[in-house]
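Q: I'm writing a short explainer about Ice-binding protein C-terminal domain-containing protein for a general audience and would like to include a description of its predicted shape. Could you first generate the structure from this sequence?
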Amino acid sequence: MIINKRLLILILFGASSITLASPISLGNAGNFAALTTGGGITISGSKTITGNVGTSDDLKLSGSRTINGDTEYANNFSHTGTSTASSYTQKLDSSYWNDLYSDIQDASNAAKSIPANETLTGDIKKNTTLSATEQVSVFDISGKIDLSGSKTLTLSGSATDEFIINVAGDVSLSGSSAIILTGGLTADHVLFNVIGNFSDSGSGTVAGTFLLPNGSFDISGSGVVNGSILAGGNSKSSITGSATVNYVSYSGFISDNSNPNDPGDSSNPTVPEPSSLLMMLLGLIGLKSIIRSQKAIAFSTI
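A: Of course. Here's the predicted structure. Afterward I'll give you a sentence or two in plain language.
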């Protein structure tokens, strides 16, 4: 009986030390700064894209862009101007792109399935602040995010908080409007699940990973995206003007990137380490068995 009590105490102690794991995995899609698994991508203008770029259709690259990452495409590749990338690789295997499409859809469905801490009815068109309510805060927006002028959407949370924001419509920014993180919240802990399209024609900064399971993206102007944008729709997407993309992938409290050297390669998936709680329980069960065996031996020698 004493052993059972001690075992229970140790189990409770171990459970209290577990770190909450992210409920959503981006799979290999999380290895891209910009990805389309339906329509092609046109990249032109100047400035830098930091991270990998992939499309299951045509890739058109022009201007004086610098892509500090690998590019992958399925169909045609056209390259004019002085733009550069780390590599240009054609991926003809349709299953490769189908798997990336599934990654986007699965992550989107997982985000939608989590009960919301707060539901916002209608569109967000004015200065709005969303504050963390739990370690993982989920917000459902029934309309669209449409920021213009100098309007901002501010996400306020600590470095250990996570935001999942489901948007029923489009996300669009213009002027100097921005999506701002405060309180220590970081872009790798922010996920927007956008059922519509994403467009940013302004000069502001946005942060987070944008999932577009049915949509496309148009990033222009001189805006900055500190995050990633992953599209599953069939329309063409573009990054033009002097817009900048700095790759930061949503990871929540666990890392999803299995092989950053090959953005979509799943041949060597990361095997998660066993839970520390499970290992402790197995050790305790073994210890209890040893004690029982010792008692049995002691009784048999009396």
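A: For your explainer, you could say: Residues 27-247 form one domain.
Q: Perfect, that's easy to follow.
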